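Protocol step 4 of 6.
Sequence for ABC transporter permease (Hymenobacter metallilatus) entered exactly as in the expression construct, tag removed. Do not edit the line below.
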Amino acid sequence: MTTTSYPLSPMEATLLPAPTDFTLLPAAPAPLTQLRRSLAADTLKLKRTAALRLTLLSGAFPVLITFLIFFFKGDIIMKTGGSPWPRFISTSWQTAGTLLLPLFVVLLTSLVVHIETKATAWKHLYAQPVGRGAVFVSKLLLILALNAVALLLFAALVLGAGLLLSVLRPKLGFVLATIPFETVVWMLLRTYVATLGLLAVQYVVSLFWRSFVVPVGVGMGAVVATIALLSWEHADKIPYAAPLGTAMAMKMEKATLTVAHELAKHEWYSLGWFAGVLVLGYVLLLRRNVS
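Step 5 output, structure tokens:
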């Protein structure tokens, strides 16, 4: 049987939908373009937030404690003589690394992720022409950058406080002694690596439990548990213990502060935690439904 086709009337031709030309649809942005846009947006959201204030001010507390100790008790501390810089730097670093640095990383990751949670913007964020990978990497890079800035500011405050003591308490000998810049640089590098493992854990926890209280509670509980487990033979495998292990890596040899110019075992474990947790977190994020 043959079918006969009839020409369409002008009204019928108007009512029929026009064929879609998919070549005219805009192409998805390149991955690097998505990452750049997401990072620019995250940086803009950071202004006037608690995360930024925490980054800028967190290093002041341990330095202030050490400064006051040396200001009032410096004569007793330096009674045996020698350069005051090794004692001052090691005391500041150990004060920060024991408890304050892990808690800083816990709060920093939670505060950065909470910017989206507080604004209930996650669903809107994933509806944008930006992939989940770009969002994941963007916030991670932002946290890593803030962590680096905080450590650099901490080191600058340590050196600045020592120079201030050289003016206020010249008898302590800060003026005549040489600042161990090489040791400070290596401690900065190793401390940064030591924080990466717990940073990754806290980042993934903050992404999946979109509440400020839960990630902070998990982090603080882990820090307290880690302190209780420091005598355990496998404590160096715990990511929350790595900053303390690095802070204790400085050695006083003949009144000189030294530190090994290589990563310690617990710092390699920290890098392993960082890589493994981020890969697992990203895979789970891709499979997660946004609600």
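Step 6, annotate. The chain has one domain: 31-287.
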